[in-house]
Please model this.
Amino acid sequence: MCVRFSPLTVEEAQAVLDARDSGRGHALDDDWQFDAMHDAHPGSTVAVYVPKEDGALTVAKLEWGFPLDGKPHAVFNTRIESALEQFRRGRRGMWAKAIAHGRCLVPVRAFYESSATEKVISEQTGKPVRRQYRFRLPSARAFLLAAIQEEGHFSIVTTTPNASVAPIHDRMPLVLGPGESSMWLSPDFALLVDRNKLQLSSLAEK
Model:
């Protein structure tokens, strides 16, 4: 499950929208360097694309994780299968309203998954921890993850892993390819389930 990603800043997210709307070229620097200090974790406030009533996207600052049982950011991932079951059957549940009316997009440079088998020694604690892998789209400076939002909080939508992620983890974020962000925000969003075929590059964290 995704517990860490490299977000765009609010300024970067807005610059990407402005460049797209004006037909200009890339808005992000190609020589950007990863810095773990800037990565998002559950509880972080990050830039998210939220559709307005007219369908245009706007940048919002939302907290990662839905509150549950008194814990402020307890549920930070949403299984697409569970959310769709609530949506299709009209069932009550914590995802029913958000999947129906709160679909949104999270612009990222990378996301991380923890290996189910590999362990390394933590520099902070000296104890064994699961090795993390960083995943990117090789041809993109940034890409979009499907998410849902409600009342100032968002959750990353997860699905079954594709060939790039499956050797590392049994779930992954729903990564949106060209043209799929508009589908995620449309009434046909359910067509994206089990479609994660984009090739991702990975790098093991030291």
